[in-house]
UniProtKB/TrEMBL annotation:
Protein name from the UniProt record: QueT transporter family protein
InterPro entries: QueT
Membrane-traversing stretches: 6-28, 49-67, 73-93, 100-122, 128-151
Origin: domain of life: Bacteria
Keywords: Membrane, Transmembrane, Transmembrane helix
């Protein structure tokens, strides 16, 4: 891994952790608005960002999650699965907006893993919890898409790692 890629991913992980820290109460419940999830859109600009995002998710769940063991399995697993699906599908989609829409949909649908986690840990109703976590994820990813797109106009994410 090049130094440039390593540093870029370190910055992404640090940003993910910092943003998650400030929104802690809203990032780990059955109604989640983990604002740092908008960084998931970075993989549509360059798949090398997967390392920083996953490191950020892992460390956030390790340090801040009240359900550490569950989140390290389900939360981290959901991120791995969703990011890999997005990376694979993005190979066939050239339009950046279309990639971000697909990414938003993938992350929203895979929130069933977080709903399963909350169902197992707290016996919350699975379908309702999937709905509430999916809505939160969709809102964050949908609002995050234009923000990341505008940031890319200035920063050029594809060239930074």
């Amino acid at each position: 891994m090049k130094i440039k890629t390593l540093v870029g991913n370190g910055i992404v992980a640090a940003l993910y952790i910092a943003v998650s820290f400030f929104i802690q109460p809203f990032g780990f419940t059955n109604i989640q608005f983990r604002v740092s999830e908008m960084f998931n859109h970075l993989v549509v600009f360059n798949k090398k960002y997967v390392y920083g995002i996953l490191l950020g998710v892992f460390l956030t769940n390790l340090f801040f999650s009240p359900m550490r063991a569950y989140d390290l399995v389900f939360g981290f697993g959901q991120s791995i699965i969703s990011l890999l699906i997005t990376i694979l599908v993005s190979r066939f989609i050239e339009n950046m907006w279309a990639r971000m829409i697909v990414n938003t949909i993938v992350f929203t649908i895979t929130m069933f893993l977080i709903a399963l986690e909350l169902h197992l840990a707290f016996h919350l109703p699975f379908l309702f919890t999937w709905l509430t976590t999916a809505i939160g994820e969709f809102v964050v990813m949908a609002i995050g898409a234009p923000i990341m797109y505008l940031l890319n106009q200035r920063i050029h994410f594809e060239k930074r790692v």
